[in-house]
Design brief:
heterodimer; A: Aconitase, domain 3; Aconitase, domain 3; 3 domains; five-stranded parallel β-sheet; four-stranded parallel β-sheet; globular; B: Glucose Oxidase, domain 1; two-stranded parallel sheet; 12 strands; about 35% strand
Chain lengths: ~425, ~140
């Protein structure tokens, strides 16, 4: 691998042991994938906080924990700096910052999380705490290299405007943020971004819920390492793409998708596909969507303990929609209803009166995490409903509880009655 | 039929272990319970199986970018896998191999999902890029 003089200096330890280890790990990653050089990472979206996976390492010391769990170093490194050339935002936290008691009674964990977040804050990570960083100022432009710990954000930013990033992993995100480099391979390489498979959409996708289900169904048919090219759809909006990316990045490993006539690297089907690729067309039709729905939802006429909305985090427009649909109603007294968003949107929702309307129904508007990432749900909740295929899919494996899945309208109707009112059977 | 196959050893070392084999990609997040080492992904052929000391024959990662951390956390708890055999590296797998540092073979000359049976006993010699099937199970 060819390294620049500056990269060699980092590897030689001239910038200290933390940068040296971050660079050594990055070079090792590059060696595995036969990268010829590194590229400069200017934006990093990082998984900060006292997340549950860190408990594997039996220490509460921030530096000891992250030395092993982020930098694979048994020797304690002081994790106190990031590359001056890389702008960093935090992904979701393990606890809701404005109302953590909704999700946990473990004050000890909350305190530890606060300590960890203060360390990230001190090194300059902006504690935005959302899975939709591209809506809160984390916007790598076309051709700009970034890392992100959120699977759908990677898929969306690569696809919708041609920024360059990969799924990688939480550890590699920290290495890139500290040394400002990642191996130049895969989607970082402009020559490796062409489509490999053609998918024809034969289902009518008109709502956010349709696109959410489509993403799940398409993901089931996307093979490892594939870059799908989609045609046959009518124009979606950002909310539809947000949900489609989230569910597609749940059932597949897709890190990029071309939508013919919509995404910039897909002006036509031919231009989007690699030479010789896409000879067979895979159809995503109503049958595939129905199969996905059946996989995601028990479809039983059950009483609901919990309904969680806002995966990925709702935008302020979605909050206005929820407020309009909930205004003047009361949620069932045996059903807890949470609506998740990013802190900046909560601020706007407060100003606009949406928060007041939503919370007057008995529901709560919360920020900065979700049931999946926190690994928590309200105490005793066993039967749960979601309007997100991503959340429904993961919570099924995580909790073993009964899961129901439907549109926002299905979930809101169910919130008022306390029973599942969406599709049955 | 030969039971010795050649590939590219991307992470060196020798190890013996039973194989978990599936062409279906797997989730890390909500796929592996790193506290027990058990696969919890509903409907996956590995569901309910432990990865501890096994050689995983996988086609790719999927789902959350928090893939490597779950295998990493399992390793720190001493219930991680012993080795990996992969047709190609996707970005989730490449970071995971870097983090785990366990013997790993990529690009076997034969389709590993055809020639390696579930639960067969394998030896990986990643320094020489070799996989041997010691017994079928």
């Amino acid at each position: 691998m060819r390294l620049s003089d500056e990269e060699k200096r980092m590897l030689d330890g001239k910038n200290g042991p933390l940068v040296q280890k971050a660079m050594a790990n990055t070079v090792e990653y590059g060696r595995l994938v036969e990268a010829e050089r590194l590229c400069q990472v200017t934006m990093a979206h990082l998984f900060c906080g006292a997340h549950p996976y860190l408990e594997a390492f039996a220490s509460r010391d921030f530096d000891e924990t992250f030395s092993e769990m982020a930098f694979i170093s048994r020797e304690k490194l002081v994790f106190d700096r990031l590359s001056p050339n890389c702008r960093c935002q935090s992904d979701v936290f393990p606890f809701s910052s404005n109302n953590w008691s909704e999700m946990t009674t473990d004050q000890d964990k909350v305190a530890l999380n606060d300590i960890y977040l203060s360390r990230f804050s001190a090194m300059g990570v902006q504690l935005v705490g959302t899975c939709v960083p591209y809506l809160t100022g984390f916007i790598p432009l076309a051709g700009e290299h970034y890392v992100s710990s959120e699977s759908h954000a990677v898929l969306l930013m690569n696809s919708l405007w041609g920024a360059r990033g990969q799924a990688d992993g939480i550890e590699a995100g920290f290495w890139a943020a500290v040394c400002g480099r990642t191996p130049l391979w895969g989607l970082h390489d402009p020559l490796q971004r062409k489509g490999t498979h053609h998918f024809l959409i034969e289902a009518n996708l008109e709502t956010v819920s349709d696109w959410d289900l489509f993403g799940h169904a398409a993901g089931l048919k996307i093979p490892p390492l594939a870059i799908p090219v989609f045609s046959g759809f009518s124009r979606p909006d950002i909310h539809m793409m947000k949900s489609a990316a989230a569910s597609m990045a749940t059932t597949s490993g897709a890190e990029m998708a071309h939508f013919v006539g919509l995404t910039p690297e897909a002006p036509t089907l031919e231009a989007a596909l690699a030479p010789g690729a896409g000879r067979e067309t895979v159809v995503i039709g109503p049958t595939e969507l129905e199969q996905s729905r059946a996989m995601l939802s028990s479809g039983r006429d059950s009483e609901l303990d919990y309904i969680s909305l806002g995966c990925p985090h709702y935008t302020v427009y979605q909050l206005s929609e929820v407020a309009a649909k909930m205004a003047g109603r009361r949620v069932s007294n045996h059903t807890i209803v949470h609506v998740w968003t990013a802190a900046p949107f909560k601020e706007i929702a407060d100003r606009m009166g949406y928060t007041k309307i939503i919370e007057a129904t008995g529901a709560k508007l919360l920020t900065s995490t979700c049931p999946l990432v926190s690994g928590r749900r309200p105490v005793g909740a066993k039967v749960m409903a979601f309007d997100s295929a991503k959340q429904a899919h993961y919570m099924k494996s995580e909790t073993g509880g009964e899961i129901l899945y439907g549109s926002l309208d299905d979930c809101l109707k169910s919130a008022f009655s306390g029973r599942w009112e969406g599709a049955k059977g | 039929m030969s039971s010795l196959f050649k590939g590219r050893g991307v992470m060196g070392g020798r190890v013996v272990g039973r194989a978990l084999v599936s062409r279906l990609p797997i989730s890390g997040w909500s796929g592996l319970d790193e506290k027990t080492g058990l696969i919890i992904e509903k409907g996956h052929p590995f569901e309910g199986r432990s990865i501890k000391d096994h050689i995983l024959v996988l086609s790719g990662g999927k789902g959350s970018n928090g893939w490597s951390i779950h295998f990493h956390a399992a390793k720190v708890r001493n219930i991680g896998p012993a080795g990996l055999i992969l047709p190609r590296l996707d970005s989730r797998l490449a970071v995971t191999v870097t983090v785990l540092g366990i013997p790993t073979i990529v690009g076997l000359e034969e389709d590993p999902f055809e020639v390696i049976a579930m639960d067969s006993l394998l030896e990986i010699d990643a320094d020489r890029g070799l996989v041997s099937i010691l017994d079928e199970n």
